[in-house]
Amino acid sequence: MKKVKLGAAILSLALILTGCGASGGENSASTDGAKKAQDTDTLKVALAADATTMDPEKYNDIYSENIMKQIYNKLMDIDTEGNLVESLAESIDQPDDKTFIVHLREGVKFHNGDPLKASDVVFSLKRLITSEGYGYIYEKIIPESLKATDDKTVEFKLSEPDGSFLAALAHPAASILSEKAVTEAGENYDKAPVGTGPYKLESWTKLQEIKLSRFDDYFGDKAKTENIDFRIIPEANNRVIELESGGVDLAFEISPNDVKKIEENENLQILRRFDHSTHFLGLRSDQGGMFENPKAREAMAHAINMEEIVKAVFQGVGKVATGPVNPEFNYSISDKLPAKEYNPELAKKLFEEAGIKPGTSFKLYINENQQRQDMAQIIQAQLQEIGYNVDITTLEWGVFMNAVKNKEHDMFIMSWNPSVQDIHYAMFSPFHSKNLGEGPNFMFYQNPEVDKLLSDAIRLKNGPDREQLYKQAQELVDKDHPWIYIANGEQVLGASKNIKGLELEANTSQALWTVEKQ
Fold first, then answer.
1. Nearby residues of 188 by Cβ (< 8 Å), 6 or more positions away
2. Which of 185, 210, 233 is the C-terminal boundary of a domain?
3. What's the pTM value of the predicted model, to 2 decimals?
4. Which helix (H) or strand (E) covers residue 155, if one does?
5. Is residue 11 one of the residues assigned to a domain?
6. Distance CA 335, CA 342 (A)
7. What is the pLDDT of residues 360-369, one digit of tens each?
8. 228 in the Ramachandran plot: left (φ > 0), alpha (ψ -120 to 50) or beta?
9. Phi, psi of 188 (to 5 degrees)
10. What is the pLDDT of residues 418-474, one digit of tens each?
């Protein structure tokens, strides 16, 4: 906004100095051109919430991730097609299934001007091994094996084989930091990041605005715009209003009921791509749980008209989910699984066989998310039609998490979007018995066959053998019905028509250095 005001002030001054003659017209045109060039240098982006930190090891939210994606690089990355590719790593050798030798890219600099060295990689990975938030992903690294053999080579060993580990190196938490910058900043580092990415932090006004500027010594293709200004606009409707008025060029998290409005605006465009999330209704299936009997879970799969729910609540955003793993993941078989048939009569029969009589009440727990409240009410109405009651309890997120952890529920609605883009994490957290009572396994689901398949599969490298084990695990989970699948999520962004070059990723964060304003 400051730049627009400055352009207006210059234009006014030009008119005063030159009057209305021919020379005045020439100066005005020149100023308009300067103003346009200035405007195309800054990409203005609306986010629904502020970042919480700029330290990758400490973050746990998509808003921080969206900023950090522009600032940092990892050893590996995921391209727009979902392929695992090298980033700061020129190559990674694996002489055996537990040893990794990382050869770093030449010519990489941090934002403070220092060259990237192997010691920075060692420092960054050591932080992750003991990380409270991400240690479970990286704890297989044997600490004493982690070393820099020279300035461009890092070696380490895992305690056991892990076929998902290269994908784990593409996780945002594994961003490579400057050891010098982190040490010097101390507790303040989370507000003063130093990465190797295409943009660097200029300023951060909490709950208002984050400003980034182009890093001209970036090792890759230079960012298309000189600056990115992230504006924090919590209300979805206000983000659309700012988009319509030109206050922002790009807006994240467009709500389903605003999609048509943007599509009908000739100056705007909608950008969409299915993401990695799966929305689901979880059923408590442990001993003593309402859905301990498999027939009760199967009954619920036929008692709910999920197409009706997705149509009413998601309004054309996302699609009906048909399996336990989002189709965006390699080795997912969800697209090959048919949607569960809505069959109220079969549902009543199965409930009876499971010993659950008409008039029974199910306790459904949700958090304060509006879509989940809407879904819960439709589920309540649909079950009422076949003689069963649903008592809905809506709680603040933290209270909700404690309630389902403590088994206060019979059912709950949640979504799962694993942080590592590998099928192992899509299945391990919700369906392995090691995670009973940990998000998202609040179904308290366990199946020894599934446990063994997942434990065996992670030890294998990508290929047909690994694929077959995950296929079998998905088939068992689908048969067990711990989840009633709702929808696979979709990223929906609104943008000005003059925005070009944004190729949406299946992540919740997007690479903005390829974007240009025309």
1. none
2. 185
3. 0.82
4. strand 153-157
5. yes
6. 18
7. 999 999 998 8
8. beta
9. -90, 0
10. 878 899 999 999 999 999 998 799 999 999 999 999 999 999 988 999 999 999 999
